[in-house]
Amino acid sequence: MDQFHGRDHKLKGSISANLKENIRYMEMVLKDCNDLIKKEFHIGRSKEQKIYVVYVDGLVNVDMIQESIVKPLLTEDFGESEEMFDWSIIESADRKWISNMEEAVTGILAGNTVLFFDGMNQAIQISTKFFPNRGVQTADQEVAMVGPKDSFNESLRTNTALIRRRIRDTRLKVLQKQVGTRSKTDYAVMYVEDLASEDIVDKIQDEIEKICVDGIFDSGMLEQFLEKDAKTPFPMYQLTQRPDKAASGLMEGRVAVIVDNSPMAMLLPVTMNVFFQASDDYYNRWETATFARILRYISAFLAVGLPGFYVAIASFHPEVLPTPFLLALVSAREGVPFPVVVEVLLMELAFELLREAGIRLPGQLGGTIGVVGGLIVGQAAVEAHLVSTIVVIVVALTAIASFSIPNEIFTGAFRLLKFFLIIMCAVWGLYGFFLGFLAIFLHLFQLESYGVPYMYPTTAKGGDKTMAFQDYVIRSPLKRMKLRPEFTKNGARRRQKEDGDGR
């Protein structure tokens, strides 16, 4: 454990009343940090009092330091007491006295400014954070045709503000702490007090506090450390870059974890159906939203099973095909030297390579490579008699189906299971197809997220089962969705009043 805290033992000392000792200490601990600004001043009109100002260039608002801190200190007189100095001179509301070096150094590296005074065994920490960020931009991964267009960015405070803007309720709580022994990354746990389960909130905080690693740089890293069952390809946390989706989750009693430097918020607990829900489902008419969801569930089945199904039929059970279609299949495969399973695997791997290349290439070039590369590779492979035209169609339909699912991380599970089913079908034909899907469903029904079944509401029970299915494959009209999901706190599931209720 010492390797994770190699520097921390140096920071346990208290701040000295001797300014020179504090300066030597800071020079030693922050040696070779050339982005650190350290300046000693004689302040007050009499210039008798000495202070030492420390901050990191690039993480602070320099204009604020000059106008609200340095200028008043150089031009105004003040008393010797700490209380009079604190409230009379510093023109900042967000400030506090600190008494140990660990808090001082951590505050400096977090973008605050620390003032050390000669003759005082305390220092003042002033919030002067001004991190470089992208600003609030349009969501590029979870695109919606209707509804708000803003998205999270890498600033923790901006992200919490985007959610607070949507939920103006005093019961929306924000618990902010740090994780990572060296990175000391800020994170915030957000929840609505009377909707979220206290046990889930406490469990999340305890699990994060138990993480002992040198650095956390993104919510995706935090997710992997929190995962209990790492043997499943399905995500156990929902990552979203849309503030409206995060706010909607909080209103259902879920908990949001926001990590500084990450443009994604993490929502939990999760069920499989939340990955099929898009933000604009709730901004469109229910008929349109229901049709879109049905298409997504069909797309999920095709993305996983279509290549394997083709392998099973073409290799083991061609007799189930109508004669004209069978003749077309035989004609298309004429001259192809590889078995069907090799054809499918070659084309699937080629399309996966094109997809990965399209993601890594910048801007419009990525989309161009994906389209043109797919056409060229597919046409060239057919003309060279390496694959048949039907395999190209099957692989293309599989790729289109996977793109129809609104959550990219969830789609990654289908990309892996697709190859699992291809192998199963290559060995056992249609029996392997059904056995493969049976294994997937058994695995899904065993998963839980903080006590909530992953396949909810399929596994819903009791009198709330009808209500649970109102926001599943079929999205009922909003006026009929009177109850929140099962993971809401007991006694707080009603979201709107009953008809005829005058309250």
UniProtKB/TrEMBL annotation:
GO cellular component, one term: membrane
TM annotation in the entry: 294-316, 386-405, 417-445
Database matches in InterPro entries: Spore_Ger, UPF0353/GerABKA_families
UniProt keyword annotations, A-Z: Membrane, Transmembrane, Transmembrane helix
Entry's Gene Ontology BP terms: spore germination
Family, as annotated: Belongs to the GerABKA family.
Designated name of the protein: Spore germination protein
Organism: Candidatus Anaerostipes excrementavium
